[in-house]
Amino acid sequence: MKSSDADILIIPGWSGSGPGHWQSRWEAKLTTARRVEQDDWYKPQREVWANRIVAAVRASTRPVVLVAHSAGVSAVAHAAEHLKPGEVAGAFLVAPASERAKRAIPGMAADFIALKREKLPFPSVLIASATDPYCSQEEAKELAEAWGAEFVDAGDSGHLNTESGHGPWPDGLLRFAGFLKSLTPSRPH
Q1: Alpha-carbon distance 143 to 147, whole Å?
Q2: C or N terminus of the chain, fewer CB within 10 Å?
Q3: Which segment of 110-114, 163-167, 174-178, 180-184 scores lowest on mean pLDDT?
Q4: What is the mean pLDDT of the chain?
């Protein structure tokens, strides 16, 4: 699959992704990408964020590929339980926020913190750094295993965000292109 064959849904985490963040850059660069907006980027609520993703998936006209960062990865995991097999072609999950890290964030709804550890109903890759202050690699590997996601070690990359020097993140875009090629397009619903 090529990016032009898919509806690419960008799912930022807590505080959204600013203009310099790789998600915002990808959204601007990839013609079929659009952001799943939330009412309040500083107060994630499980059902509100999950329902917004589900609605965006169901409004799509092409196979859907989710691109999530940090607490956006949690939102994808929460949305997955509401999605039918075949509604999402794949998910590119980057720098998940651990339950430990989410507990320390003001405004984080308690029901958003805990994550189910069940296989996701779509192919996925989880990319995590060895030096992410919000999720250890051990925690990320555990999530990848539980979700049935391919685990990718991003090395010494911090939280894979603007602050860690990952504004454009060309390596991520190359890996995303490879992930897209591995996907079998799901049929629009």
Answers
A1: 6
A2: C
A3: 163-167
A4: 90
For residue 54, the Cα-to-chain-centroid distance in whole angstroms is: 13
Instruction: Give a three-class secondary structure readout of 4-43.
Output: HHCEEEEECCCCCCCCCCHHHHHHHHCCCEEECCCCCCCC
Q: Structural domains in the chain?
A: 3-182 (3.40.50.1820)
Q: Identify which of 31, 27, 7, 57 has the alpha carbon closest to the alpha carbon of residue 168.
A: 27
178 Cβ contact list (under 8 Å, min separation 6) = none
Q: Give the side-chain half-sphere CA count within 13 A for 3.
A: 20
The Cα–Cα gap between 53 and 93 comes to 14
DSSP conformation letters of 123-159: -EEEEE-TT-TTS-HHHHHHHHHHHTPEEEE--S-TT
